Amino acid sequence: MNDVVLTLNAGSSSLKFALHSVDDPLVPVLRGKVTGLKRAPAFSLSVPKDAGLPLPALDPACTHEEATVILLDWLGTHAAQHAIKAVGHRVVHGGTVFDGPARVDAAKLAQMAELTPLAPLHQPHNLAAIGLIAERAPSLPQVACFDTSFHATQPEMNRLFALPYEMSQQGLKRYGFHGLSYAFIASTLPEHLGAEANGRVVVAHLGNGASLCAMKNRQSVATTMGFTALDGLVMGRRSGRIDPGVILHLVQQRGMSVPEIDALLYQQSGLLGVSGISNAMQDLEASSDPRAKLAIDLFCYRAACEIAGLIPAIGGLDALIFTAGIGENSAATRQAICDQLVWLGVEVDRYANDNGATVISMPEATCKVLVIPTNEDAVIAQSTIEMAGLV
Ligand code: ADP
């Protein structure tokens, strides 16, 4: 029997899972996901690849909770050589309460539930999975790893909205997300940058959800997502930063309801909304439609603007790191963003960028540019192993 931890990452319509060995948490022994929940759910495995394991069929109406039960049963049958010693969960919101991972007990679960209004699309799924496992295996340690915790180091200035101060004190402020990804990248910076790892670094997490984090001493100083995961960059389906007056206009002049505006900003905007074709960068790059190009150009221009907007928080730029689906795989997107930041000392080596190098900046450039694959699961697994006392 191989001792492992199970990591669960419930998104708004997906459930990602992995098993990591307690002895070697960086590389998963099994990894997969259930996508398209409540629409067209599909269960897939990426590790081990092509192992020929029978995968469960899912009912079209399958919910997160049902998918979790199916997954646990499936693991019990098809991954029985792995003994699950603890479960680690990505929990989207830790508010100002949780500035690091937490071993779950009833009191902490109640504190997390109080934060649900801050992340209504994700937090209920995260907490439901914790509750379900607590019922099935009450003695199995569970650890919550928060997407917001990494940003607890942000100075107050960078968290404030220019709203009446009492509202900030009530929690209306910038939290920031993608913290597990940023924590992973921060942990790898010394190996890539040596002493410069503690310098002025911007990490661009460009996936379906996208954000930036400005770091100094490998700690978050400022980030582009704010009170919600809607702020900042253009994303696959989310608008990113828009004039708040647009929302007033939609309500007052167009009579749109709150659910309609919610769907507009979270589901119908971003790359999908501008292109009218797809939320996926890969699809847009393959398209010859001018609207696909317009969406890509806007994505890159807005990303360059937002990177520039973070510079006052860290006083310059020693390194720019690209990560996540688009950041890791789209050389054209990296090039287009960097071409708009030459004035910041960013100069891309086109050959290195096109050929999968880690360092893609010109040797003489003052700002290093790197591509580093992120690994949120490994951060959850590592924290779970530590918090559950498995080392
Ligand atoms: P999520 O936020 O759902 O975890 P990912 O980090 O998986 O998202 O990123 C998904 C995005 O990465 C999509 O826009 C997808 O099209 C893009 N992407 C993945 N591979 C490539 C590629 N080879 N070229 C361009 N874009 C890619």
Overview of the molecule:
The structure is a single chain. The protein is an alpha/beta fold and 391 residues long. It contains 14 helices and twelve strands. The strands form two sheets. Strands 4-3-2-1-5-7-6 form a seven-stranded mixed β-sheet, with helices on both faces. The protein has a five-stranded mixed β-sheet with strand order 10-9-8-11-12, with helices on both faces. The model has no long low-confidence stretch (mean pLDDT 95). The site of adenosine-5'-diphosphate has 13 residues, from helix 9 and helix 11. Residues 207-209, 236, 280-282, 285, 324-326, 329-330 line the site of adenosine-5'-diphosphate (ADP).
SS-derived structural category: alpha/beta
**Strand proportion:** 15-25%
Largest sheet: 7 strands, mixed
- Global geometry: globular
Q: How many beta-strand segments?
A: 12
Kindly provide the radius of gyration, computed on alpha-carbon positions and rounded to a whole number of angstroms. Answer: 21 Å
User: Overall pLDDT, averaged?
Assistant: 95
Bound molecules: adenosine-5'-diphosphate
The main sheet orders its strands as 4-3-2-1-5-7-6
What is the number of helical segments per DSSP (H or I, 4+ residues)? Answer: 14
Identify low-pLDDT runs.
none
Strand and helix order: EEEEHEEHHEHHEEEHHHHHEHHHEH
What is the terminal separation in angstroms? 17 Å
Proportion of helical residues: 25-40%
Give the topology, please.
Blueprint: E1 2-10, E2 15-21, E3 28-35, E4 42-47, H1 64-78, E5 82-91, E6 102-103, H2 106-114, H3 123-136, E7 142-146, H4 165-169, H5 179-193, E8 201-206, E9 210-216, E10 219-223, H6 244-252, H7 258-267, H8 270-275, H9 281-286, H10 290-314, E11 319-323, H11 324-329, H12 331-339, H13 350-354, E12 368-371, H14 376-387
The protein binds adenosine-5'-diphosphate (ADP).
